[in-house]
């Protein structure tokens, strides 16, 4: 089974081809965009991208976890995790059969 | 209030004062569009330092309307998942 991945390089290439920014600049722009998302998410806990989806933060409490192999007990400290909920348009697109 | 795309764009604009807002706008929409199209094709999207988007196939099943108890056929569909990268986790949890 071959698994195809879209990576940052592909995104850089698309920006380069479609807008004509140099690859260096394109990469910086994409990186900055992603970092801005993280930064805002950290502060505001919720971030919406229209037609794409919503990122939100859920705080998890600390709990006692176990290493299933060694049966060793450990506390997992409280942490923030990110949830992503795709928008309706996104879901519809992924599920549509025809090419848009 | 939640942050929306226009606010992100304004912040991005501040770091790139020499760029046209129109172009930054387009960069963002290209990025989001490429991610969408890749997931539509069934590919995974891996963005180092940010996270990974992937799809899963949910099999067709007979579900119920929870209100009426009536049986409903749910066709096979794809679900969208996002898993954040370690770097993102660390950024969110180290302060």
From TrEMBL, chain A:
Species whose genome carries this gene: Pelagibacter ubique
The protein, known as: Integration host factor subunit alpha
Keywords: DNA-binding
Gene3D superfamilies noted in UniProt: IHF-like DNA-binding proteins
SUPFAM superfamilies: IHF-like DNA-binding proteins
Cross-referenced PROSITE patterns: HISTONE_LIKE
Region forming the signal peptide: none
Family of this protein: Belongs to the bacterial histone-like protein family.
InterPro entries: Hist_DNA-bd (IPR000119), Histone-like_DNA-bd_CS (IPR020816), IHF-like_DNA-bd_dom_sf (IPR010992)
TrEMBL record, chain B:
CDD domains: IHF_B
InterPro entries in UniProt: Hist_DNA-bd, IHF-like_DNA-bd_dom_sf
TM segment ranges: none
Protein transport among keywords: no
Stored Pfam families: Bac_DNA_binding
Keyword DNA-binding on entry: yes
SUPFAM superfamilies, A to Z: IHF-like DNA-binding proteins
Keyword field: DNA-binding
Family, as annotated: Belongs to the bacterial histone-like protein family.
Stated name of the protein: Integration host factor subunit beta
Organism expressing this protein natively: Pelagibacter ubique
């Amino acid at each position: 089974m071959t698994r195809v991945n879209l990576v940052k390089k592909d995104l850089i290439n698309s920006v380069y081809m479609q807008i004509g920014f140099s690859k260096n600049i394109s990469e910086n722009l994409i990186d900055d965009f992603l970092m801005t998302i993280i930064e805002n998410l950290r502060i505001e806990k919720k971030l919406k991208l229209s037609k794409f989806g919503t990122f939100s933060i859920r705080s998890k409490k600390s709990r006692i976890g176990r290493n299933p192999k060694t049966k060793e007990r450990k506390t997992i400290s409280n942490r923030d995790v990110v949830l992503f909920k795709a928008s309706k348009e996104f879901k519809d697109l992924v599920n549509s059969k025809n090419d848009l | 209030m939640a942050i929306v795309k226009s606010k992100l764009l304004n912040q991005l604009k501040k770091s790139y004062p020499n760029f046209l807002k129109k172009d930054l706008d387009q960069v963002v929409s290209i990025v989001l569009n490429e991610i969408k199209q890749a997931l539509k094709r069934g590919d995974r999207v891996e963005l180092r330092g940010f996270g990974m988007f992937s799809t899963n196939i949910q099999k067709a099943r007979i579900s119920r309307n929870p209100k009426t108890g009536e049986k409903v056929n749910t066709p096979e569909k794809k679900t969208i998942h996002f898993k954040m990268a370690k770097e993102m986790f660390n950024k969110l949890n180290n302060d």
